[in-house]
Amino acid sequence: MIVRPHQHWFIRLFDWHGSVLSNIVFRLSLNLLMSLIAVFGFPWYSTFGIHLTTAPFSLIGVSIAIFLGFRNNASYARFIEARTLWGSLHITQRSLLRQIKSIRGVSEEQQREFSRLLLAFCWSLKHRLRKTDEQADLQRLLPANWHHAVLDKPMPTSQILLCLNAWLAQRRDSGLISDMVWHSVDENLNQLSGILGGCDRIASTPIPFAYSLILHRTVYLFCTLLPFALVADLHLMTPLVSMFISYTFLSLESLAEELEHPFGSAPNNLPLDALCVNIERELKAMNGDLSLPEPLQPDAHFNLT
Length: 305
Known about the structure:
The protein has 305 residues and is mostly helical. Helix content is 71%, strand content 0%.
């Protein structure tokens, strides 16, 4: 995710990182090529009576703008829902640890064990969504007596939920947790399960391909033919105007594609590493642990992973 200090409006005009311009510069160069072909070929093909006007492009442009708006709204809604789920994860894990710490008879060592299971769930979910290797973080965070129940399992994140439930069941069987407290804590465990399901739904269900494909094809056909409609009126100004209009449509489409997958590692995706570190810092602080990890700071490009 891009995190920037406040900038002057003129300086922001020249921002490159996070502007999706790097993703579409090649496509804009193709539009420039078609514009040059339209300019230098106009005297030749106009002799055949071929003449495009801007009227149909105005109608198509309005339609594309409307559909791009719907597409970006759908992608942004996925991004916001993903961030809401991770905000709920932070709240739920904090509430669970608070509930455990309020139970008389649960030692500080047992509280830390439960906290480490919560952190293992958080980091495992991050790796699950990004399809990265989670073994190092699980080895670091999981209590040794839970390694056999989680490591080398096909679904470690779901397995950690079972471990949290088993930890609570052990305290309930020993009489430390009453039925009323059990019900309250179990509701928060169900919240974790719901968050896992919500994140999986977003990660595994993209916007329907046919919808994206028709918009993709229409945008590229529009940007390819646009210079031939502008050249009769704009002449040598055709490349400049055509590239500016194409930049608007192509950048909106590229941004929608990026936001559609909020758990990725692109500059405008959610900073899952930073979110996990913040949760780890808070849960450790609640346990009185002073060895807190350093919060992730934006890098030289103002980017958080």
